Amino acid sequence: MARNKVQFQKGLSLNEFLKAYGTEDQCFEALYALRWPDGFRCPHCGHDKCCELTVRRLQQCNDCGRQTSVTAGTIFDSSKLPLIVWFQGMYLLTQNKKGISAMSLHRQLGISYNAAWRMKHKLMQVMLERDDDQPLSGFIEMDDAYLGGERTGGKVGRGAAGKTPFVAAVETTEDGCPTRIKLSVVQGFRSAEIKAWCQQHLTQGSTVITDGLACFNAVTEAGCAHDRIVCGGGRRASVEEPEFYWVNTVLGNLKSALRSTYHAIEPKYSHRYLADYQYRFNRRFDLRALIPRLAFAALRTPPMAYRLLKIGLG
Ligand SMILES: [Zn+2]
Known about the structure:
Radius of gyration: 22 Å
Distance between the termini: 47 Å
Number of strands: 8
Bound molecules: zinc ion
Number of helices: 10
Strand order of the largest sheet: 6-5-4-7-8
């Protein structure tokens, strides 16, 4: 059997990682270059000259005199962890296909569980915000899906208690190869909700394939063409339909990854766990670039206080 090119691509080896990000200085330089690719720019006045206060690695603007740092105003802001630990966390988070739990981060990085949890949730928040403004386009397989509730022995299927509903959508090429996915928590499967979701996450003019669930008719209200496949023998028969091959495959892999990586997922954080899986899937063609790309996005994500992180979806 031919080897799958995506699965067998060269990742970033631990050795290469250590060569590139093995010291605090290297991590600082990497962040500096990603934050200010054209040289320093004062976040307060826009001036481009500064002097560096070496003790605490602060930049002081030569014009307005205010101090800033490479991590100020970003998701790394006010973290007490050394940059090197953040990079190690980004390495573990991006190079593991199935993700990594806060408990494993705590053990492997030698930091407290709470610090590991904060790091993981901040990085997942970065992934969530990064993908939010990159809509899918072209051909899209879309389905309703649910997280959680499987182990409680409760009702199976749509609307069961304890389940978090989310939209699963897979963008494919014209000849049916999957390119990117979107996994977004929604309040429920109602027309208004689907219309709003499509407006935010799909490019107008895309073709969306769904099953017969009524709310999916709203995709046309968001300017997309709708290809509705009504499956005989109950709604779950869509699992058998070739039109939904990729969305079913992605959902199967997602659930197996979540089951093997996490003991449990609190429903109020489901959006971040889905974003974490989605982020890695959408960038699976270039594993080696994942660390600089995540660091770049992290530097452009505003700080998030622990209190807000904990609230989640509330
Ligand atoms: Zn300034």
